[in-house]
Structure formats: structure tokens, C-alpha cells
Write a structure and sequence with these properties.
Elements (H helix, E strand, L loop, with lengths): L36 H23 L7 H8 L10
Length: 84
């Protein structure tokens, strides 16, 4: 008996409650235009701060950062498996 793989779910931007954008700077890339791995930590940090600001704007309150958010800002969970 074989099991069928689960059907892929198609997501759209509207499926996510918070959205943010970031720009790739020239300094974030190498000569071939590949984004440096170190830049992803910066993208995660700016995204986290942006989402926290959006949450505060939606609730119209200023919430202190939770312990999870503080830990994320201190050390983003980036685990690079291998060089491609």
C-alpha cells in the first residue's frame, strides 16, 4: 500500500496577516549578484521589527517585546545547511 503525497497548498500574499518589504543593497551581493548569507540575518531583523510595529499599529497599543521576540532579535534562527 502506497500513500499519496499531500496536495500542495497555494498561498497568496493576502493569506498572511503582516507584510513587509526590504531592499537588497549593492553591498549585500557579490560580483555575480548573489545575495551574501550574512544579509539574510539583517533581513530577518528588519522584518521582525517591522512586524512588531505593524502589530502595535493594529492594536493601537504599545506592547513590550515578549521573551521570544527578544531572543529572536538577539540571535535570529538562521541555520545554513551547506554551501550551494
Amino acid at each position: 500500500m502506497t500513500t499519496q503525497p499531500a496536495a500542495k497548498q497555494t498561498l497568496s500574499l493576502a493569506d498572511f496577516p503582516f507584510q513587509t518589504y526590504d531592499k537588497v543593497r549593492y553591498a549585500d551581493t557579490d560580483r555575480q549578484g548573489h545575495v551574501n548569507n550574512a544579509a539574510f540575518a539583517t533581513f530577518l531583523e528588519t522584518t521582525t521589527v517591522s512586524v512588531i510595529v505593524q502589530m502595535n499599529e493594529q492594536t493601537r497599543k504599545s506592547h513590550p517585546l515578549s521573551d521570544k521576540a527578544k531572543a529572536f532579535l538577539a540571535q535570529p534562527p538562521v541555520h545554513l545547511e551547506k554551501k550551494v
